[in-house]
Amino acid sequence: xxxxxxxxxxxxxxxxxxxxxxxxxxxxxxxxxxxxxxxxxxxxxxxxxxxxxxxxxxxxxxxxxxxxxxxxxxxxxxxxxxxxxxxxxxxxxxxxxxxxxxxxxxxxxxxxxxxxxxxxxxxxxxxxxxxxxxxxxxxxxxxxxxxxxxxxxxxxxxxxxxxxxxxxxxxxxxxxxxxxxxxxxxxxxx
Length: 190
Fold this sequence. Notes:
The chain is mainly α.
């Protein structure tokens, strides 16, 4: 078996679960129904197959994930991905950081942003709007109780509407949860 990965990269590693994922050939009707709406609508990853052990939760989780990360109004898709990267860096989730950095790069082609984040982490220096997004996602992931009106004001000053601010809260908070699931259910491998 390959070695676990502990450094940030935009190359998406393989995620290896600690428990045996649900086998599609023997999945229950409830499990199959819950997997119909996968997080990215691209197939059944080992992660989704692992979450399918609890089909009731998965059936709620996937549509919520899709609405938060792929919503059509508010924050752009790239900026939602940047929020996910910020949370994932704080939470040391190498897999999620890679997936969402890769998506950010696929949308923007702005390698300098991800390079700065993966090199300098919380000390990364980014263009002003990106900096505001990243700093907020990192703060929300580090000390959510300390996020307040001044943080909302800083986001507004960076040009984020109230809907964009809400989308950033949702994407960063979603990854506080997703990162913890990834860490406890498996690990990234080379």
